């Protein structure tokens, strides 16, 4: 039986998750389902388009919860009743609203599903304020959607009903006719944030520029590290060599100008950028993220150990100078992703998930408690060790020595 699917994220622009949602909704509709989109922000011109003839009802929720979720819950409750919602797919899985929304949907006997778009350890990498509730919310969700085998294993240890899925893959609408073979342009795409490490891309480019002077780079995106990026470009006098184009939904023109994609992320959940580059027949030079299914294709990309700048610069040089190797990698990238697309059947995969998800027992299993206690104790031990170090004489002496130049400068000022 077809379902009415509710799905939630903060907005629909400037991010990989937003783009995935815009492609997932048409797949759910192809399966005969109705979709209602909940967001915290109103639609904008920067939103990713949802490619479907069906009209998508978008309901905006109040992001200000100072009233104790009263307004938010009123809107959600009314929507549940009016539209006979069957399941909620919640994409903002590490958010202060998750507990409230889960409890509300479950009060209507509606399954609440967390779609985890990042690797399972993401919350600890980001030192999120949601860390302490992370395990509990995973366990209490009626199901968890994940994109990698390694995350699936972790969630199953917790006792979660876990589904491993692929994100949608969108082939280019038209073949790119461009002079990639003669291009010396590198492409970098992503949010300007610590996870994506845009400043590392500039460091790599600087070293590459010494060896191949006519190389240039396009950086597509924006974010909280934008000022740092601009300062670094200015510091290295690369203003004429690195072009910052900001956020742009239409990335096809940039692929058309580029020789290969450079990716510097420290971690990812799936990486639509890798899939997209392969679909355009563009090879990738990246730091290793071996747990990603896209990297496990191991075709059309080269990965180097995290932080090994010399190795990745050498791979970039090879892409730029060895034509036979470059053509082979372009072909492998395109062929591997086309094969993957042929294997995908998202419509049936998701309908099977919708048909099997039910409200589950919310008791935390022993397995879940083991992981929760382990992580909390690791965190506590780490914080205790940091406190000991800061109280030590060697730390205090070292801190004094480091601050001597600042004090001298302040005196002269």
Structure, described:
- There is one protein chain.
- This protein is an alpha/beta fold and 413 residues long.
- It is 47% helix and 14% strand.
- It has helices at residues 16-30, 70-83, 98-107, 122-125, 131-140, 149-157, 198-211, 226-235, 252-257, 272-279, 293-296, 309-321, 323-343, 346-356, 366-391, 393-412, and strands spanning 4-8, 34-39, 57-60, 87-90, 112-115, 143-146, 162-164, 185-189, 216-220, 242-246, 260-263, 284-287, 301-304.
- Helix 1 packs across helix 14 (346-356) and helix 5 runs antiparallel to helix 15 (366-391).
- The longest helix is centred in the last third of the chain and has 26 residues, at 366-391.
- The model has no long low-confidence stretch (mean pLDDT 84).
**N-to-C span:** 75 Å
Major sheet characteristics: 7 strands, parallel
What oligomeric state do these chains adopt?
single chain
The geometry reads as globular
Tell me roughly what share of residues is in helical segments. Answer: 40-55%
Query: pLDDT average, as an integer?
Result: 84
Identify the strand order in the major beta sheet.
3-2-1-4-5-6-7
- pLDDT < 50 runs, ≥5 residues: none
Structural class: alpha/beta
Please state roughly what percent of the residues sit in beta strands, choosing from under 5%, 5-15%, 15-25%, 25-35%, 35-45% or over 45%. 5-15%
H/E order of the elements? EHEEHEHEHHEHEEHEHEHEHEHEHHHHH
Question: Helix count?
Answer: 16
Number of strands: 13
